[in-house]
Amino acid sequence: MIYLDNAATxxxxxxxxxxxxxxxxxxxxxxxxxxxxxRASSQIVRKARETVANALEVPSRNIIFTSGASEANNQAxxxxxxxxxxxxxxxxxxxxxxxxxxxxxxxxxxxxxxxxSFVKPKADGTFPASLIxxxxxxxxxxxxMMWANNETGQLLPVKxxxxxxxxxxxxxxxxxxxxxxxxxxxxxxxxxxxxxxxxHKFHGPKGVGFLYYNEKLHFDxxxxxxxxxxxxxxxxxxxxxxVGLAKALELALESIESNYxxxxxxxxxxxxxxxxxxxxxxxxNFGPSMPHVLNLAFPNENHDLLxxxxxxxxxxxxxxxxxxxxxxxPSHVLEAVYGKNSEKLKENIRISFxxxxxxxxxxxFVEKLSSILKK
Length: 375
Prior knowledge:
Pyridoxal-phosphate dependent aminotransferase NifS; aminotransferase; 12 strands; metal-binding; iron-sulfur cluster binding; Aspartate Aminotransferase, domain 1
């Protein structure tokens, strides 16, 4: 199987597997225990936190470990909104966010009566910061925006929005899941008050992630119990997964420039090969994007059928977010651009790369895709 679905999840790097395996065999103490085994485990958690903090260039005390980006997003959005309802009742997000943001703010609307603005892109799919500015109100307390879209790779104007909000009471949550480990991510550079990410998007294990938070903010915990994570998130730490997260992030940062260039080459090669094959296609590209994601469409070709044929031929791709896999609903991201009745919602596939992919894999993919489309 040739794997081209890295926006959904990435394979573990061999060094990450080794680090996790060694931790599993050598460390089993509860990090909250005061004996030597507990202290050794506590030190591992502390080192992992320092690795993340150093990568983000923030104090380690401002990192909460979570079960992944979905929990981190819920913690930021629900935790802050409920603790600060006296400041206002309005939340802004974009219509192209990940379901872990869209469904969370919808929950805040349905359960607690928050007024939520789901801001759509412009007609051409672009998303300037002015769209957020136009929706700001005196009672806006929270703005949530992804750094890069998981279905199209589109880069959103997080830095510009962060600057905009410096003159407003609203705090800024950035979902950095699709960019962490791929480009430099520093919350302070984009004026983010919260920033979330998940290890399995940068060759770490599933089920572990983190949330950066501005220590000046007051927000509620979601999980109550013990005093772990500075009383922000109760529960015994996922020790071995934290080892994997830290190792994967270290490796990503060591080769961040060369990895990015390798993915750019894969992206360029695939597009060039498609043109050489004279395949009719268009890109769902709406401005500056991460090269890691290509959202392509083939006129009059049903994407579900195409995905199935490619899967049977040994190629793993997708038609959109992995968190909506198995549903029959069209992409909410493309629907926000094209409208819910557009035929374009049935034509797209998502190809997503990592530096572990090769040019040979891209060539084989285009060859098989061409043969399927020309039959």
